[in-house]
């Protein structure tokens, strides 16, 4: 079978990129379009990049985008009236650190369908899957879970080192999986 030289060169270039750096697993699997971030200076969260698309459909289909209140490149701009989250940092079940954001949202500000019951994004997937969306990650942490519930007007994100602190339960609502501040949602 003949494979054009140009195709081989491109494939080798991609292979070199994949193996060139022994940096963290996060760097190897994440990008500006699928990275969650929480720190005192700002945050990024995943959401559908297609207006009105259901949350539960956007992750498996790869139709997500990272939206940040201070984007640095490749991310979408989080509208200032979308979310005023409460930041909390703590130690988890086994003593590992976690950081989280919880609060009420304005679904229309980000083009979300206000009747959508919502869904969950996470780094680990279920049943051995590679995350939802595939390859997504939280900057500086080994695991994350994010849930957006437009119909309930709330969202929550937790980034953690221990997977026990980021429980994956697609049927559970924000207050059950990430207890926090949801005033009047």
What summary fits the major beta sheet? Answer: 5 strands, mixed
Element-level helix/strand string: HHEEHEEEEEEEEH
Mean pLDDT: 82
Q: What's the total helix number?
A: 4
Q: Your description of this structure?
A:
With 185 residues, this protein is of the alpha+beta class. It has one domain. It has four helices and ten strands, in the order ααββαββββββββα. The strands form two sheets. A five-stranded mixed sheet has the order 4-3-2-1-8. A five-stranded antiparallel sheet has the order 5-6-10-9-7. A hairpin with a 2-residue loop joins β1 and β2.
List the helices and strands and how they pair.
Blueprint: H1 5-19, H2 25-29, E1 35-39, E2 42-48, H3 55-61, E3 64-68, E4 76-77, E5 86-91, E6 97-104, E7 119-122, E8 137-138, E9 143-149, E10 154-160, H4 174-177
Parallel strand pairs: 1-8, 3-4
Antiparallel strand pairs: 1-2, 2-3, 5-6, 6-10, 7-9, 9-10
How would you briefly describe this protein structure?
With 185 residues, this protein is of the alpha+beta class. Helices cover 17% and strands 29% of the residues.
């Amino acid at each position: 079978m003949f494979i054009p030289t140009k195709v081989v060169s491109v494939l080798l270039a991609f292979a070199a990129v994949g193996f060139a750096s022994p940096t963290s697993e996060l760097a190897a699997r994440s990008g500006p379009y699928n990275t969650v971030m929480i720190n005192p200076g700002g945050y990024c969260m995943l959401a559908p990049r297609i207006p009105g698309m259901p949350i539960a459909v956007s992750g498996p289909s790869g139709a997500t985008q990272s939206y940040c209140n201070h984007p640095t490149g490749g991310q979408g701009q989080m509208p200032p009236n979308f979310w005023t989250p409460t930041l909390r940092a703590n130690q988890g079940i086994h003593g590992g650190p976690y950081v989280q954001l919880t609060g009420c949202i304005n679904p229309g500000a980000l083009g979300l369908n206000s009747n959508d019951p919502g869904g969950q994004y996470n780094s680990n997937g279920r049943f051995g899957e590679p995350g939802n969306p595939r390859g997504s990650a939280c900057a500086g942490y080994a695991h994350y879970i994010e849930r957006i519930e437009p119909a309930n007007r709330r969202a929550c994100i937790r980034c953690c080192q221990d997977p026990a602190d980021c429980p994956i339960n697609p049927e559970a609502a924000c207050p059950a999986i990430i207890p926090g501040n949801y005033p009047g949602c």
